[in-house]
Design a protein that fits this description.
Elements lengths: L4 H12 L9 E5 L13 H6 L4 H8 L11 E6 L1 H17 L11 E4 L9
Helix pairs in contact: 1-4
Length: 120
Amino acid sequence: MSFDPAQLKRHCEIIIQSRRIKNKIVVLCEGEGGIKDNRYRLSPQTYARMEQMPDANFYKACVPRWWSQYKPEFFNCGDRKDVIDTYFALLEIHQQDSENSYLTPGLLQTTNRRNARYRS
């Protein structure tokens, strides 16, 4: 089940206004346990808890420890369609109002579990 347009817009607004993405790589993750599967109301606090969700946790573990100051911010988005929709919606929202956005479009990435490799 994918985001409806209102959920997608709210999802993107929370990501784009999050201070923790400022000057960082933003990675949109595909996987179960995404934000739409969360039983809590969508809020910045819910997104802060996302780092404990299985897929975001998995991707964080793939980043080398020596790279800690450059560590990307990972956001679980749900299925592949939601990742793609979120990617293009984030770019569109950023173009419309870049003054109220912490997003750096050149640092926006997507991934899925099949493309990631675990490194310690």
